[in-house]
């Protein structure tokens, strides 16, 4: 069985690619206080996320994140 954390990371990256999302929207959906499910924080640390400058900037999937999604076979 695949790691649930990895599956959630792929799900978040796929969600981010579907349409532009603001930082506040991403935090509302993906921020967690559970140290075992730090999907957002780990994706940022792993370089899978990019963002536009400013508080109202959009959150984007980085080139590294797009490669990960592609290697995983698309939507999750």
From TrEMBL:
Domain of life the protein comes from: Bacteria
Protein name listed in UniProt: Uncharacterized protein
